[in-house]
Amino acid sequence: RGTALQPLFKMSYSCSKVGDPHPGQPYKGGNFCAFLPDNQEGLKTAKLLKKAFERGLTFQIKSCNGEERVTWGFIPHKTSRDGGKARNGYPDALYLHEVSTVL
């Protein structure tokens, strides 16, 4: 199936909490997009990614040029439909196995 699922995450501006680089400081949000194949394994991975998001494991706050901002966390996401592994896209035959192992 050539179609891809497209989860979109919208993170608002807010204040960081204990465990973040600078607790109590405001941070900049953003829009994040990731792609999964529209097949059984992709749907299974989407459910695991949803649990990771609900547990606060998908994103982290980092300092960048003196500004706190939301970035991807340690769970790998495919942010492009093409370009291969080198460009965080497809094709990447091992991605679903690798992300399932991390999750």
UniProtKB/TrEMBL annotation:
<feature type="domain" description="Deltex C-terminal">
    <location>
        <begin position="9"/>
        <end position="101"/>
    </location>
</feature>
<keyword id="KW-0963">Cytoplasm</keyword>
<keyword id="KW-0808">Transferase</keyword>
<protein>
    <recommendedName>
        <fullName>E3 ubiquitin-protein ligase</fullName>
        <ecNumber>2.3.2.27</ecNumber>
    </recommendedName>
</protein>
<dbReference type="Pfam" id="PF18102">
    <property type="entry name" value="DTC"/>
</dbReference>
<dbReference type="GO" id="GO:0007219">
    <property type="term" value="P:Notch signaling pathway"/>
</dbReference>
<comment type="similarity">
    <text>Belongs to the Deltex family.</text>
</comment>
<keyword id="KW-0479">Metal-binding</keyword>
<dbReference type="GO" id="GO:0016874">
    <property type="term" value="F:ligase activity"/>
</dbReference>
<dbReference type="InterPro" id="IPR039396">
    <property type="entry name" value="Deltex_C"/>
</dbReference>
<keyword id="KW-0863">Zinc-finger</keyword>
<comment type="pathway">
    <text>Protein modification; protein ubiquitination.</text>
</comment>
<dbReference type="GO" id="GO:0008270">
    <property type="term" value="F:zinc ion binding"/>
</dbReference>
<dbReference type="InterPro" id="IPR039399">
    <property type="entry name" value="Deltex_C_sf"/>
</dbReference>
<dbReference type="GO" id="GO:0016567">
    <property type="term" value="P:protein ubiquitination"/>
</dbReference>
<dbReference type="InterPro" id="IPR039398">
    <property type="entry name" value="Deltex_fam"/>
</dbReference>
<keyword id="KW-0436">Ligase</keyword>
<keyword id="KW-0862">Zinc</keyword>
<dbReference type="GO" id="GO:0005737">
    <property type="term" value="C:cytoplasm"/>
</dbReference>
<dbReference type="GO" id="GO:0061630">
    <property type="term" value="F:ubiquitin protein ligase activity"/>
</dbReference>
